[in-house]
Amino acid sequence: MSRPEALLVTEDGLALRGEHFGAPGTGTGELVFNTAMTGYQEVLTDPSYRGQIVTMTASHVGIYGCNDQDAESDRVQVAGFVVRELSQVASNYRSQRTLEEELHRAGVTAISGVDTRSLTRRLRTAGVMRAAVSSVVLDPDALLRVVRCAPRMEGADLASTAGTVEAYRVGPAHPQHRVVAYDFGLKRSILRLLLDQGCAVTVVPANTSPDDVLAMEPDGVFLSNGPGDPAAVSDGVAATRALLTAGLPVFGICLGHQLLGRAAGADTYKLTFGHRGVNHPVRDADRGTVEITSHNHGFAVDGASLPLDGPFGRVRQTHVNLNDGVNEGLECLDVPAFSVQYHPEAAPGPHDARHLFQRFAQVMSAHSRSARVPA
Fold first, then answer.
1. What's the CA gap between 337 and 244, in Å, rounded?
2. pLDDT digits (tens, 9 = 90+) for 32-62
3. Which residues are catalytic?
4. Which of 181, 179, 173 is nearest to 365 (CA)?
5. What is the arrangement of strands in the sheet containing 268-284, beginning at the earlier edge strand?
6. How far are the Cα atoms of 47, 52, 131, 142, 284 from residue 80, in angstroms, in the given order?
7. pLDDT tens across 100-153, in order?
8. How would you write the chain as a 3-class SS string?
């Protein structure tokens, strides 16, 4: 069927016309690409994509529809969506609505009919950049002016508003472990895997003070994924330092990995085009294995900056991306803390790294509250 026109413009002046779907309007953000063949609903609802327009490199998107069970948060998080071809049907027994209906009710503007292969090659060469998708501003020069007024991702503290505003608890009444999870943009799959380890989880807002966390007497603290620049999340870094000082076991994923790295004395930096996909090979130095992993990050910990004698002692690299050598994991050797850059909880997959949640449970068991340094 014939659809209204839509326009995609990038900050370096590229203008691509296509067909509009989703909600009418204009969306601005950092234009990135994801190489996954499936899992578009999880991508759309991942809070780590807040402030970004996502291009899917898969050529045909939307064929299995969307449902209430697979969402990673309570809403669509992306600022815009770009696909080569939108499926005209949603054929799956679990489907409750089409991809277009999902975006329309979320108020997100999307464009199809774009050469996503060429667009991805451009982003790999020039780096991710600001862009806009619009069904109402169809003049390239006018939309370019909108793009160049949009905020940049560098220096953006998006994590402070990406998660819950009130604490809540999930899990059994008599758990094996009590965990406090900082919500910088927490994915629901993470909670499911913590519950699988017998944990009761109290999820707290990103600005929760470490004193409040310590008053809950948890067995461990989880630092969640989330959007934005880790260098801008100063409260999260300060809280992590306080919790490490108290001797609490800490496990971080994605943004949580970057915050732990900065708290332990390392630096972070922005990648040229980031890692976003479900097929990244990561070497686990401890296990001597290579795992296929899911990624969604535009910033990374500088592995060369991991300190031999930092504020919490020695820190070592545990995981590395075999595509480009980027740091993918770290461990503090003198306090009970570790983290990974990628997503071991990935849905719909891969599941190679889910053992890390069992490792967190083991670390908590090995570090009882009675053995910790008083706060």
1. 8
2. 999 999 999 999 999 999 999 999 999 999 9
3. 254, 343, 345
4. 179
5. 168-170, 199-205, 177-183, 220-223, 250-253, 337-340, 327-332, 315-321, 268-284, 289-301
6. 13, 7, 9, 18, 34
7. 999 999 999 999 999 999 999 999 999 999 999 999 999 999 999 999 999 999
8. CCCCEEEEEECCCCEEEEEEEECCCEEEEEEEEECCCCCHHHHHCCHHHCCEEEEECCCEECCCCECCCCCCCCCCCCCEEECCEECCCCCCCCCCECHHHHHHHHCCEEEECCCHHHHHHHHHHHCCEEEEEECCCCCHHHHHHHHCCCCCCCCCCCHHHCCCCCCEEECCCCCCEEEEEEECCCCHHHHHHHHHCCEEEEEEECCCCHHHHHHCCCCEEEECCCCCCHHHCHHHHHHHHHHHHCCCCEEEECHHHHHHHHHCCCCEEEEEEEEEEEEEEEEECCCCEEEEEEEEEEEEECHHHCCCCECCECEEEEEEECCCCCEEEEEECCCCEEEECCECCCCCCCCCCCHHHHHHHHHHHHCCHHHCCCC
Distance (Å, whole) CA 297 – CA 174: 35
Residue 375 has pLDDT above 70, yes or no: no
CA-nearest of 185, 136, 142, 137 to 164 is 185
Domains with residue ranges and CATH for the chain: 5-147 (3.50.30.20), 159-371 (3.40.50.880)
